[in-house]
């Protein structure tokens, strides 16, 4: 019920949207293919393997919709959509290396080592290619916004490494980290998608704010679903965050209300990563009993209320996006 | 003597050059400081530590000289010089992680792990900041050239990982890898430095070719010096390449002429990294006896002969650069 409240609905709009996005996404995919070509076959193999490993192309879809709402989807829209997906994939690749390094489970195997090397270099390659694609829009504002966004994402990563291994992380700090790591790129995708379609700077900025909030809502909902979904319909295994000791919003809310005994359990399972088979279920009930999921979704709903559309265009955008967002959340990331 | 032949001389020009570059470099350093500011103190600390750890700012100097030769050093020159240094530092940081992973000497310590994480993220941060700086030039050609260069550098890294762990690497392939990893950024620094000072596209392209060749000569000479310098005047320990099993040009030349017994030694020390204290000296004599250094420097001299200046500007540039290059090679990288 809480989830339904977060995701407002417009099914017919969503069907139109799906075909619109699908048509453009075919162009995006063709452009991605084209830009992954390399004299070094290994780069192409690894990059394609990663780019086509089940990502739902949510961020490119934001670019496409933001351009669509402002009148037209041009070659610049398509280039920008591909660039945003490249930036997203590059940060995911580097994240994986970092998370692995931090967990340090035993000596790395040869495969793990090659994996790290490939992840670092293919990430760098995709990042460079993203900027090559952006240059083709001929719009320096796009480059300015997305280079700044890239720096903010990285700074968010560092902040997360420094601050987020503690249950004392405040809700505010947690939202800021989420903002840097996820919401900024959502916002930039909406803003730049609007700009290349001819939106005024102010209209595009309004779209940035809407996209930013959408990113927060997306991440909060995703963090809740990681505990609630019990099958693999989303294509990822539930409980990943728990197993990795990722201190998300539901966990912070639960910790704030937890007893001494429960805090001992939280420390043991999520900081020391000393977990047994039943611990995920116990964790789920612990969060539930302290209204961790409810509070997280209430915060997401609050953020949604704060970003009411001001104009007709923003209203249309919101309807389309809510449909898209639900689609993404019920499949996978 | 061979080294002296490679580095043509013009001492007076070099003294003028030093003060010109020094003045501009102060502005570059101030801009670097400014762009390393971050809400996350750790980023600033790590980035500054790395940026100020003894780099000789050779690539920014190329940008400055290329602008100077074409009439004036503007704020765009300074921004570009800082950006090129950021790209160079970012690639060095990621290189370190990759080299460390490949060697895999024992289980990583906590310090090593934090080092890797920091190196990846600070590298990404610097790369993003480089593009922010480039945007301030307002020149899309600069962004086009340097995003392409960044992709080529990464592709060169991957190619090196795949191909260069064998003595059978051809001279041509070795030059291509050197080209991608080192010479492209030298070329791009010269080309974009010229462009932002108002050079024509063709003049700038000529500067690119000159810079590219300069990069090859720089790298070849550096690889020779790694065996020949016996004190630490360059700020780096001689024999690093040997200890890391880096198969450079002098080694390839030596291997081509080596006896069965010598090839056994080369395999044991440079592939298996099974080395004793006297092996560096033995290696030096082995390369010397097969004219590995001589042939490498002759190739560098050939490349220099192929890039004769066509215009007065290119002639001036060459005189200034030769002085600068020698200065850099006799100190450190």
TrEMBL record, chains A, B:
BP terms from Gene Ontology: isoprenoid biosynthetic process
The record, for PROSITE patterns, names:
POLYPRENYL_SYNTHASE_1, POLYPRENYL_SYNTHASE_2
* Cofactor(s) this protein requires: Mg(2+)
Origin, by domain of life? Bacteria
Protein name in the entry: Farnesyltranstransferase
Q: What family is this protein classified in?
A: Belongs to the FPP/GGPP synthase family.
Gene Ontology molecular-function annotations:
metal ion binding; prenyltransferase activity
Keywords assigned by UniProt, alphabetized: Magnesium, Metal-binding, Transferase
Species of provenance: Candidatus Odyssella acanthamoebae
Entries under InterPro entries matching the protein:
Isoprenoid_synthase_dom_sf, Polyprenyl_synt, Polyprenyl_synt_CS
Which Pfam families would you find in this protein's record?
polyprenyl_synt (PF00348)
């Amino acid at each position: 019920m809480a989830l339904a409240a977060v995701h407002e609905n417009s099914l017919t709009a969503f069907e139109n949207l799906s075909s619109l996005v699908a048509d453009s996404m075919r162009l995006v995919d063709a452009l991605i293919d084209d830009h992954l070509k390399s004299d070094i076959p290994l780069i192409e193999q690894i990059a394609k393997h990663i780019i086509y490993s089940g990502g739902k192309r949510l961020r490119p879809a934001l670019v496409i919709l933001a351009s669509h709402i402002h009148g037209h989807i041009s070659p610049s829209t398509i280039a920008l959509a591909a660039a945003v997906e490249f930036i997203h994939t590059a940060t995911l690749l580097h994240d994986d290396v970092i998370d692995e390094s931090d967990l340090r489970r035993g000596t790395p195997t040869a495969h793990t080592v090659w994996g790290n090397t490939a992840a670092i270099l293919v990430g760098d390659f995709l990042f460079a290619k993203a900027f090559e694609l952006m240059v083709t829009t001929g719009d320096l504002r796009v480059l300015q916004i997305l280079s700044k966004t890239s720096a903010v994402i990285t700074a968010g990563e560092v902040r997360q490494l420094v601050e987020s291994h503690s249950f004392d992380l405040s809700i505010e700090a947690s939202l800021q980290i989420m903002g840097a790591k996820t919401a900024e790129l959502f916002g930039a995708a909406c803003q730049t998608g609007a700009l290349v379609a001819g939106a005024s700077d102010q209209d595009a900025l309004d779209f940035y704010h809407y996209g930013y909030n959408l990113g927060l809502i997306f991440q909060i909902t995703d963090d809740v679903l990681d505990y609630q979904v019990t099958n693999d319909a989303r294509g990822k295994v539930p409980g990943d965050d728990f197993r990795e000791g990722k201190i998300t919003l539901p966990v912070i809310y639960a910790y704030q209300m937890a007893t001494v005994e429960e805090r001992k359990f939280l420390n043991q399972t999520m900081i020391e990563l000393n977990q047994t088979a039943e611990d995920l279920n116990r964790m789920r009930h612990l969060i539930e009993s302290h209204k961790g999921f409810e509070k997280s979704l209430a915060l997401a709903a609050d953020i949604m209320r704060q970003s009411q559309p001001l104009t007709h265009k923003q209203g249309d955008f919101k309807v389309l996006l809510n449909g898209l967002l639900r689609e993404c959340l019920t499949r996978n990331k």
